[in-house]
Predict the structure.
Amino acid sequence: MRPLASFPLRAAALAALATVAALAAGCAVPVTRVTRVVDEPPHYAPAPAWDRYGSVTRIEEVQTSAQLTGGGAVLGGLVGGVVGNQFGHGGGRAAMTALGVFGGAVVGNTAERNQAAAASSRYYRVFVRFDDGERREFDYSDLAGLHNGERVRLHDGALQRG
């Protein structure tokens, strides 16, 4: 048989353990997992295409071009100076550095100018006044023979001769 003194001690230890467990459970953050099922959106029949008619009121040629910043010349001059400094001794080294700076600046400026020319583009902005009075603009890379005063129709977001 066990002594009676050990039962209250054991009961107190169990009570303390239960209290700690209850407090720990109260501090715990519940984990909630949400599983989201995304169904495919419903398929609707396409809206019937309707055409709008109007006239070309104006056509503008729009040129875009990149501006030269001078960064090519500066960067080219720095690189040219570093390369030029690797050659010669004494006064010759200074001359080679100066020549490298000048040559690098010329090459860098030319490279920047070529890049700006490649980035420039041309497109046409077509202004249309529709029969209901609304005015809109459309941008095209090619006019395909379209000219001022011509009747057009808007079909599926694109102008067509009408």
About this structure: Confidence is low (pLDDT under 50) at residues 23-32, 34-38.
